[in-house]
Records
---
Amino acid sequence: MGSAHAVRQRVEAGQPVVAFDFDGTLTIRDSFTEFLRWRAGPGGWALGLVKMAPAVAHYARDRDRGRIKAASVREFLGGMDRQTLESEAERFAEAVWDQFMRPDALDCWKAWGDKGAHRVIVTASPVTTVAPFAKRLGAENLLGTPLFFDAEDRVSGAFAGPNCRGPEKVRRLQAAYGADVRLAAAYGDTSGDTEMLQIADEKGFRVFKGRP
């Protein structure tokens, strides 16, 4: 689930494909920022933000979300081995689930599952940190921003593909389901979901308001 390489998904004839954004849609806030904060602790988080001041200043000028995200990966996760990252991502998901997931979004997720839909999470957050949530939800697929691991299987601070946001969400869906993919429904909460919503019959923009 969530490989950096495009993997064509098998969907049964007539089976609806439904796409959910993750951060702010299924959750109440950005999961990657919260994961970094949780892992670093108050002191480490504050120090890391100070070190990231040049990157933040650069972001204020160019608004490049991919660049600022890569900077946060280098600062807070650089050099971490894959196994440790995956283990900590699982611990994070377990720790925050009850206070993090929108109940009305979960109800919608389950309702589509009961209809036999193929449910895919399409997120700008790293695949590795969202994967434990996707597994717990029983997602049929997860498309996200892939981290790059070096020859020693450690986080390098770069990505193995484009930031999965905006038009890239549609490109990833097309790679997984075909160039003519049409979604039965899509749910999102920011401008980064606009293009994905445009290829859906049911466009759910900021429809989930529930809090744990």
---
Amino acid sequence: MKRILFPTDFSEVATNAFVHALEFAKIVQGELILLHTFELPVFDNQFFPENYMVIYESVELSQFDMFKDEIPKLRAIAKERNLDKIKMTHRLMDGDLIYNINKSIKEDKIDYMVMGTEGASGWSEFFMGTNTGAALMDVKIPLLCVPMEAQFKKIHTIGFTTRFRPKDKKALKKVLEIAKMAQADLKCLYVKTGKSDVDKETIKKWEEEFAAEPIEFFVIAGDEVKETILDFILYKEIDILTMLTYKRSFFEGLFHPSLTKKFANSFDVPILSIHIE
């Protein structure tokens, strides 16, 4: 059974992403591991010699109480969606979020991770402007990022951005497995810019190799990569967009500070990030 890690702070953003995590678990026939982390405050114990441990115990207790109160709410959401049969386990951990995520991935043998973000207008900050975003891009397992604006809808079409590299093919096969489980189609996009170096023969070989699969390939010429991706999402009715990441190189280009407000606020579909070496 596939195991899906869902880090949550019980915020509205996380609750929206929880619905996606539940539905994703249904698709891959998996189980959820809910992770809530918190950091203990740093005090100089020379100023609090007597109540030093009391302060820490109080913080831990308050976190446990919140955790205990919030979990039934999530189970109620699962029941409302008739997904209460999905197995859910919980981890409450103190310490650094990224350290605990990586610890859970290793100890719990995690296959996928799902988490929420503040939304389309916050993509740049999430992937580029914070240590959390930077570290998450190095997570090797597939990561489904859900912006607040992305309300769950049945997955009919998965988009896949590619440059027809050999390592892209390996990632495509991973996404194809998910698409088949979801009974969804895969639409692959290659934006052929003036600097593109992919020849027609390479594209033809890919098309022939995947001819029997529910995959379509689209090659669109143009130098406006971001706008082309947006049009692709809109006109091909993409429900999830897959992007390949190598440290953060793709996102650094896609979510550059020079982005127009229109572009940033239009990006409201979940992103499935596949790490490639």
